[in-house]
């Protein structure tokens, strides 16, 4: 039998790239502004830094220890360990600890506070950072204690410390205290509200999903004589997308670009998410063209949004086009792997066996393999629906060296063969399960 997973001898018909001819298309509009802005020369470098993969934190081992030990040993462990490697600005680490045990996260920050006091620390930045971390674990009372103890040591707060305290309150949903702190700042001489103070409120209400308050604080910032910046627009776009106000997100994005600000990864991802939720395939393609023309690396998160959109709309040709484009632009291995599997998943949903087999062969030739059990199971189900049992055997043989079937995949096989009355195929499947240690 011919191996259907060999790549076809002739190359696929070239995919015609549709270009939106109106100047109102999102990406073209963005690209035009970006090329004429003063920051044009740094587009590639900025995107390269923004989309680079994050390095594994050296504090991971300590975090794992903190997750495993009882609460009573948290502070003694921190005292005895080399905490110089602990990233105190890593919000994600404390968030992970908080999700497992809020008490442990609080103990870690209490230990940090005790250490600052013992060392007679006078740096406002250190206290401000600690208050911010209290907000990330949604512990306003601890943030207030840090602030109070800092003042009791004769260390006078500045605007940034108040901003951190306001942020901690908003992260915890304590709007009343946040507004009270702002009133204190307004009546002071030493820590008047700054541009960052207003951004703190815009960001806070954006995260809380309060569009009215978010908009009011944005207008209040301008009324106070402060100009909007990238951070401001990040919050505005995020808030609008979160509330499914896609027109508002587009409006703020246009305003941001008109002012000459280069969009950050956060803004781009939110704009892309909004376009995907609107199912605006044309503008999605144009925005991707802008990103790739800028030399950026697409994130896995962005790839997943695109795959989800195209799968929902059954836009397999657009998915194929996306794969070709990403491969030409030397994208990350994981991103390409996700798109390969997304294409196969869509062909399986459509029961297009020839295309499944070609795509699996192409993926293998490029050095990729299945990672998600659901993708493999969808392919198996497609073969059963088409009653293509011999072709299913070929598929399983093709992937056996690169992918180990899960228990659920074996269950699909057993159920499918039984329905088809192919009892002779059951014994080999059961034997394979035993060899894999599943039975």
Automatic annotation (TrEMBL):
Limits of the Pentatricopeptide repeat-containing protein-mitochondrial domain: 131-207
PPR repeats: 123-157, 229-263
Chain ranges passing through the membrane: none
Any GO molecular function: mRNA binding
Repeat found in the keyword field: yes
Keyword Metal-binding carried by entry: no
Keywords, ordered alphabetically: Repeat
InterPro entries reported in the protein's UniProt record: PPR5-like, PPR_rpt, TPR-like_helical_dom_sf, TPR_mt
Family to which the UniProt record says this protein belongs: Belongs to the PPR family. P subfamily.
Official protein name in the record: Pentatricopeptide repeat-containing protein-mitochondrial domain-containing protein
């Amino acid at each position: 039998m011919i191996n259907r997973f060999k790549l076809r001898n002739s190359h696929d018909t070239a995919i015609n790239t549709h270009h939106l001819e109106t100047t109102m298309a999102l990406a073209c509009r963005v690209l035009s502004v970006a090329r004429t802005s003063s920051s044009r020369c740094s587009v590639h470098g900025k995107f390269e830094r923004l989309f680079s993969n994050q390095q594994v934190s050296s504090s991971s081992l300590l975090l794992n220890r903190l997750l495993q030990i009882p609460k009573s040993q948290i502070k003694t462990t921190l005292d005895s360990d080399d905490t110089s490697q602990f990233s105190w600005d890593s919000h994600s680490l404390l968030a992970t600890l908080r999700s497992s045990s809020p008490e442990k996260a609080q103990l870690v920050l209490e230990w940090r506070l005790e250490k600052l006091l013992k060392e007679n620390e006078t740096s406002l930045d250190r206290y401000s950072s600690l208050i911010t971390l209290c907000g990330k674990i949604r512990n306003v009372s601890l943030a207030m204690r840090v602030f109070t103890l800092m003042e009791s040591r004769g260390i006078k707060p500045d605007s940034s410390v108040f901003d951190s305290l306001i942020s901690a309150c908003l992260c915890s949903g304590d709007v009343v205290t946040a507004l009270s702190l702002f009133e204190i700042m307004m009546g002071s001489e030493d820590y008047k509200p700054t541009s960052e103070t207003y951004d703190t409120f815009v960001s806070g209400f954006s995260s809380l999903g309060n569009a009215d308050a978010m908009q009011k604080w944005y207008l209040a910032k301008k009324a106070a004589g402060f100009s909007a910046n990238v951070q401001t627009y990040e919050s505005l776009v995020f808030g609008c997308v979160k509330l499914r106000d896609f027109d508002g997100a587009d409006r703020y994005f246009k305003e941001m670009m008109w002012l000459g600000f280069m969009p950050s990864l956060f803004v781009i991802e939110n704009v892309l998410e909004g376009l995907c939720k609107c199912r605006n395939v044309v503008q999605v393609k144009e925005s991707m063209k802008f990103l790739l023309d800028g030399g950026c690396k697409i994130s896995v998160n962005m790839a997943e949004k695109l795959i989800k959109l195209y799968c929902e709309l059954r836009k397999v040709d657009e998915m194929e086009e996306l794969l070709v484009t990403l491969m030409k632009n030397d994208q990350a291995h994981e991103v390409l792997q996700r798109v390969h599997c997304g294409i196969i998943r869509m062909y399986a949903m459509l029961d297009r066996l020839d295309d499944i087999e070609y795509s699996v062969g192409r993926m293998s030739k490029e050095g990729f393999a299945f990672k998600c059990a659901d993708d493999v199971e969808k392919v198996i189900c497609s073969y059963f629906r088409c009653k293509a049992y011999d072709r299913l055997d070929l598929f399983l043989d093709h992937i056996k060296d690169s992918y180990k079937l899960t228990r659920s995949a074996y269950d699909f096989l057993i159920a499918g063969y039984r329905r088809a009355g192919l009892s002779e195929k059951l014994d080999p499947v059961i034997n394979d399960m035993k060899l894999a240690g599943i039975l």
